[in-house]
Target: GTP 3',8-cyclase
Amino acid sequence: MLLRTICKNKWSVKSISTKNSSLDEILTDTFGRKHNYLRVSLTERCNLRCEYCMPLKGTKLSEQSKLLSNNEIVRLVSLFAKYGVDKIRITGGEPTVKKDIIQIVESLRDIKTLKTIAMTTNGLTLTKYLVDFQRAGLNALNVSLDTLQQNTYGKITRRNGQLLKRVLAGIDLALQLGFSPVKVNCVLMRGINFDELRDFVEMTRHRTISYRFIEFMPFSMNDWDEKRMVPYKEAIREIMKSYPNFEPCNNEPNSTSKMYRVPGFVGNIGFISSMTEDYCDSCNRLRLMADGNLKACLFQNNEISLRDPLREGASDEELLDIISNAVNDKKRKHAGMKNLPRMPNRPMILIGG
Ligand SMILES: Nc1nc2c(ncn2[C@@H]2O[C@H](COP(=O)(O)OP(=O)(O)OP(=O)(O)O)[C@@H](O)[C@H]2O)c(=O)[nH]1
Ligand SMILES: C[S@@+](CC[C@H](N)C(=O)[O-])C[C@H]1O[C@@H](n2cnc3c(N)ncnc32)[C@H](O)[C@@H]1O
Ligand code: SF4
Ligand code: SF4
Model:
């Protein structure tokens, strides 16, 4: 039964058994990269419709019964944690629209080997729920905010621009509650928000924010256009026109971002250069999506269901075999900027970043 599930998923199954593998080996790929960071998408739904993420015409969502239940999520995360994952990032869609999210965070907190329970959110509900999230065990927070202008916020998110105020209030609350730093993600796009660079940098003068600029990436039906993408080196040159002392600073290990700062500012600035200078060599991430598929690389289209074997009664060891195969199938790098737009992938909203 288990084998049937695997074949249906078109995954190449080598019959390596995890029985004799050491704890470290199972989540280590053929290039020696250890995967200690699991991104877990809790939902495919969202209260925004960001143009670079959600296809204009929407996207087909999975039936409720095809989504992982809370117990299934916790069982899988516990298994990953047993084999070396110590950082979980809750994402979506928008994770905060998920019913029971607080109970999920609490269950993750009970997995004692997890050091980081992080969330990436659009920030709309933080003023309402962040205190509860923190109490439940959330200890790292990334908020996505692409503009400081109401009109532009409305255009990018295809929603009411006034919602911007709620996100800004959420970021301030996160700072007050001691999240440090609060990482703010911003997809930088020519003709949309590139002219706000100076304002974004100013946000880091008195706030312990890491404002991180992400190069616009191609996903299914997101109208990616190389001309709209701002290469990170161009963003640095632009910032240096106003802040000539802008300088590199220390990166966290396995970080997606190259960190910089303006001397004297308490926050800092990061560049997530997925398109023009990948950081695949230090990749430590796997992705569990809301429908229970495991994706070893953001840009690799092969996925394997963990939900189906789980529901068919697979043992931990059988699940580990599947996970280990997925990790071993991970490519060294993504396919490069020229090829990525032509490659099939999910819309980003169904992956979770
Ligand atoms: N190419 C690539 N981009 C990634 C990967 N992980 C995150 N990103 C990009 O970085 C953006 C921000 O991701 P976040 O959800 O804030 O997570 P993170 O960058 O891992 O955050 P930290 O754990 O705080 O460093 C995502 O939307 C992606 O655009 C990855 O593994 N590969
Ligand atoms: C898919 S969202 C899910 C979490 C949450 N809804 C949020 O917006 O933070 C995760 C991250 O993916 C980023 N993202 C989405 N589409 C992208 C694209 N085409 N290129 C680069 N980053 C993208 C968003 O900016 C966000 O920071
Ligand atoms: S980036 Fe986040 S907030 Fe925006 S549409 Fe995608 S999932 Fe929703
Ligand atoms: S593109 Fe794939 S291999 Fe490269 S950093 Fe992202 S997830 Fe890792």
Confidence is low (pLDDT under 50) at residues 1-16.
